[in-house]
């Protein structure tokens, strides 16, 4: 959308940006100057620099975040059930898999397999014949006024 500010401040720093931050901070730049250069939040810059000073590395730590509640086999089973019967609900799939997970987990696994839910079509698609008839109808009434 034109005129809308892109909010990159809350996304993860990529490895190139982390290296750039370390390089310019080592060169003596202030945090505010680095913030303007990299277009990230001051907190993200400070956190990256503190990690470099503390650990001597700029690589993101592995193992952060919540642990997975389903195995790969269970993930495949979730996807398979959604493919076999596309009318199945999340709670039905959840009960069939037999793993105590919330419905949001089922949605995430389906989204990872590119199986998002689709909204129903609100109007019927127009065929080329329909389009031609509509155009003819519009051309015939293009010169009408309020009394017609």
TrEMBL record:
Write the protein's name: Transposase Tc1-like domain-containing protein
Q: Which InterPro entries match?
A: Transposase_Tc1-like
What organism is this sequence from? Araneus ventricosus
For molecular function, the Gene Ontology terms on record are: DNA binding
Pfam family membership, one: HTH_Tnp_Tc3_2
GO BP annotation list = DNA integration; DNA transposition
Which residue range or ranges hold the Transposase Tc1-like domain?
Answer: 75-140
Which domain of life does the UniProt lineage start with?
Eukaryota
């Amino acid at each position: 959308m034109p005129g809308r500010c892109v909010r990159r401040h809350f996304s993860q720093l990529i490895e190139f940006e982390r290296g750039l931050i370390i390089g310019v901070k080592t060169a003596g730049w202030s945090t505010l100057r680095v913030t303007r250069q990299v277009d990230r939040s001051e907190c993200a810059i400070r956190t990256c620099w503190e990690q470099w000073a503390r650990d001597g590395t700029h690589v993101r730590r592995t193992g952060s975040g919540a642990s997975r509640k389903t195995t790969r086999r269970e993930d495949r089973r979730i996807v398979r059930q959604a493919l076999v019967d596309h009318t199945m609900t999340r709670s039905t799939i959840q009960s069939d898999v037999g793993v105590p997970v919330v419905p949001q987990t089922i949605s995430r696994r389906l989204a990872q397999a590119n199986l998002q839910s689709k909204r129903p079509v609100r109007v019927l698609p127009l065929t080329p014949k329909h389009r031609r008839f509509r155009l003819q109808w519009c051309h015939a009434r293009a010169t009408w006024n309020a009394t017609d």
